[in-house]
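Appendix B.2, paired examples.
Example (i):
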Amino acid sequence: MRFFNDPKEILEQTTLVDRFVSYVQIDTTSNEKSEACPSTEEQWVLARKLVEELQALGLEGAAVDDNCYVTGSLPASHTDATTVVGLIAHLDTSPAAPGKNVRPVFHEKYDGSTVVLKDGVTIAPDDNPTLLECIGDTLITSDGTTLLGADDKAGVAEIMTVLSYYKDHPQLAHPAIKVGFTPDEEIGRGSDKFPIDTFGADVAFTLDGTHPGEINIETFNADSAFVTFTGVSTHPGTAKGKLVNAMRYLATFIDRLPAEVSPECTEDREGFIHPVDLDGTASKCRCHLILRDFDEDKLAALGKTVAAIARDIETEEPRVKVQVEIKRSYPNMYQFLKEKPEILEKLQEAVRQTGLKPQLVPIRGGTDGANLTRKGLPCPNIFTGGMNYHGPTEWISTRAMGLSVCTVLNLMTLYAK
């Protein structure tokens, strides 16, 4: 068996970085307000490009379905490899920051100083201590006006590079590999229409993590809360004693959310309530909040807090009507993965063979793997090397990308035994 621990070898022998750069320049921002699948037409552009590349790499059945899910199969290198392994990443980028006209900037031989981008955007070691682990590396950022898109086009590029490496090195042992690229993960829909029944994997891994060495078998439990305020509309010129402005009461609702359970005040295993979107008029408006906690009971308590604040406002002003709807987004996948310790054992060994110390970190977020695991496809998460997702300070080290590819190659070697 051969294991991989030299990211420089990967960078020199593959087109990993070129692939990544070509992918991030395609705008694939998802849109939560769209009911379509995918939520934006631009995701089709990357999907079709990947199908062409998968076909060129010789994958069987490479195609994109009517919902923009890209799949393909690489047969096992030998008949003794009985486990079928899936590799999954997502096409879309977060709507939290602009994803159009991404211009990747290379910072070669990084020296440990503050990275200065356009519009006063800086990436400083004081706020990003991981930068100091990357002295001498080549870093890639955006120009500061957009996000970079390493979430998750780094994962896409790394999976494609693994497949390309097997094409160039047919002597290497690997199991049957199923590839899946999903739309709309950033808006919580990535697994909704995933063709899990026909995908055919026994176990899968998302490449959607961050720091080298990190692996994730635990996510938040996640709910979405939608709070709708309906007031009384009338002409503002004759509104005294009649008008009930729904927007004012929505503002009161947000002001009463407990600050101590906001994302900016929590860390580690602490949950939060986070308003993410507002829309509407003075007569009717709506707020979308995301609720997160690793513990189901604590998550339920957050939902009760939201409902209680809404009820208090309705009591204080009976003319305003408040509707609260809470929907499940994804579960903590640990409740399912803890029953399959052999998966984590292989993943940790793959990281060790890369020369890194495995770091088992709970995700303060989610991946497609959470819902896929709930649906019966065990799906832990692997690091990609990307940092500072969802904003213009996003960055990635090419060395870290190479380490991710090494980890996946090692994992496939273990599953080929």
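Example (ii):
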Amino acid sequence: MIADEQREIRELARRYADERIAPRAAEWDRERRFPLEVFRELGELGLMGVCVPLEHGGAGADFLSYVLVLEELSRADAGVGVTVAVHTSAGTLPVLAHGTPEQKQRIVPPLAQGHELAAFALTEAESGSDAGAMRARFDGGRITGTKQWVTNGSYARHVNVFARDGDGVGAFAVREFQAVREEDKLGLHSSSTADLVFDGSPAERLGPPGAGMRIALSTLDGGRIGIAAQAVGIAQAALDLATAHAKQRRAFGRPIGAFQAIAHKLADMQTEIEAARALTWRAARLKDAGRPHTVEGAQAKLFASRVARHWTGEAIQVLGGSGYTRELPAERYYRDAKVTEIYEGTSEIQRLVIARGLLGALDGAEG
């Protein structure tokens, strides 16, 4: 169950998603267009800083409310969902958690109100899951290096960057950088994924020296819950589409939903989506309570991403030949779902996190 305030926020996001996002999502996908105007509108509605405190320009709601918003946005367009997810959990919340009072007051309000977009730059060409192998370096107040797979990279004004700092890794707030290449992706065509170059970019420290990896990992703990919510939203969209089709499409004189093969497929689909949603809400509630949620976030992302990838494919199966065409959004859901098993930590990394929580660190274990 969710509280009345959480329900109202979800309904606001749902109405906006249905009225302003869903009707244009196919066009954005075809044109590979980043809908910048949407994020300004979401900012006016308070949805770019749902879980940011009121005193910092946000809506002052909890993390679960933010997760509910991500699900609704992603149900309409997963590219919009991931833009808001990274902007909030990876771009804005680390400043709130680790910035000085002055940094919070200066950096956060424009982000929470949707006037600026934020990004998170951790991965490099030679350091993906092995983030500790990064080569970007902070020296003399400036960062030099490159980052890749940066969501929002071509449109962000604020980037949380992780770089070598002496013998350790530091976290830094950066505003001057160059986006040099947009990825040509399988899905999420309405989102930006760019390579960034930092050529002596001025940088200000977030948190104490050497705390970069701790900040990055704690940020990912929360970010994975957001990606789980994105996966749930994609899967829900696929279920809605497949269910409507099963009621309307007729074969042998009756709706195809009357056939057990289709009915059972939809029943399994709904059940697993509800299970993924429950795992996601559980992790969000733990975060809201200030309790450990590393394993629970990993479980939510691992399961929800698998559910989204599998059942978007099965939704195409229910729709038959029409599901394989771009006349219907099923194929877009299928393309968008796959990346939820990859970014914010691959499914293999999630299993490692879960196993370590269960077994502890064992001698000779990988990673």
